[in-house]
Amino acid sequence: MAVLWPCILVAALGIRATATPRPRNSALHLLTKQLLQQYHKEVRPVHNWAQATTVYLDLLVHAVLDVDVQNQKLKTSVWYREVWNDEFLSWNSSMFDEIREISLPLSTIWAPDIIINEFVDTERSPDLPYVYVNSSGTIKNSKPIQVVSACSLQTYAFPFDIQNCSLTFSSILHTVEDIDLDLLSHREDITHDKKVFLNDSEWELLSVSSTYNILQSSVGDFAQIQFNVVIRRCPLAYVVSLLIPSIFLMLVDLGSFYLPPNCCARIVFKTNVLVGYTVFRVNMSDEVPRSTGSISLIGVFFTVCMALLLLSLSKSIVLVKFLHDERCSGKEQPLLCLRGDIDGDGSRMDSRAQCAGITEFPICQEYQSQSGTLKEVWFQLQTFNNHLRTQDQMDQQEVEWLELLYRFDQLLFRSYLAILGLYAITLCSLWALWSGL
User: Fold this and answer.
1) CA of 373: how far to CAs of 351, 361, 364, 387, in Å?
2) What are the protein's UniProt keywords (predicted)?
3) What is the C-alpha to C-alpha distance for residues 226 and 11, in angstroms, rounded to an integer?
4) Of the chain's two ends, which shows fewer C-beta atoms within 10 Å, N or C?
5) What are the start-end ranges of the E strands in 138-219?
6) Does residue 264 have a pLDDT over 80?
């Protein structure tokens, strides 16, 4: 019996081992070990070194995260895909339980050194360490990334501006003889592919066109694929908060021209409008993107309207000051008769003698009753006549100045009206062009 126990134990273990099924992943482990055992990731995976490795690229724009006009930077979220063929990573699927596709660590295989030339900041992407490899050696590398790229942003047509920013993919070291580029999808499909784009942001994606070109340099020719991302701003919020209030403010300023130019209330009214312009300008500067290369059209029109307002206000101040000085000088003329005059012998005449003929003053009435000579009456009449002539000349000069300033005021009004009309027509044209795209 003691001899039979080991035999029975061995037989039981054999039956148990035979009943246990073979793990399905053993073929996967064997395949992975066989592929990577003699693999050298430092070498470009081709049997013929003169044959270029073609990398197929695809790009899907997911969202526009930030448009920094002042620093000329565009931040986008894109889904980037690379596909290339590795001749050293192919196998016969029938020998490995019909396994046709596996995942391998990206750090263990050769990968093309494709970068975006417009990068101005560190690339931000989730850590995806694996790539898919099929039995024919085709490798698929897909990853979402946040791209901060340099872009020439123009704000002239704000808020109806359309931006065209490019993302150029190319190899750093490999020339076109080593690595060539091509599109994974058709150009038409890439251009109008908006299925993953988020439309709830400030910007709307119009198209993503792509072009292939070869960059020639002193060290060699490099293949490049350029994706042109065309986006446009959604202007409704800016129309409500900026454009409509600016037009209302200009209309109020335009209505101030109906007040008389020599009215002091016009100066007060225009001063209040100028304060409104200043406050609105400060608020507008926080919302309008600032760029050192271009100035927004709304800012240009607003500055011109402020200049016309200041010119009209200065003209009204000068006119009121001029009329005030003229009236003060006119009031001093009748008082000359109270100061007296000097006759031909050098003796100073009595001041009451100069007031003859002016019945408004009691002193003159008293003196007129006392003086009865015709010579003195004639002298007083000449004095009064000269005063009236001087007053008429001053009134005529005042009328001429008023007429000149009225014409200048009409010129400012027409200029203001023309600028306001041009402003409205330009905004409507830009809106029409924006809507037509």
Assistant:
1) 16, 20, 15, 22
2) Receptor
3) 70
4) N
5) 138-150, 162-171, 179-183, 203-217
6) no
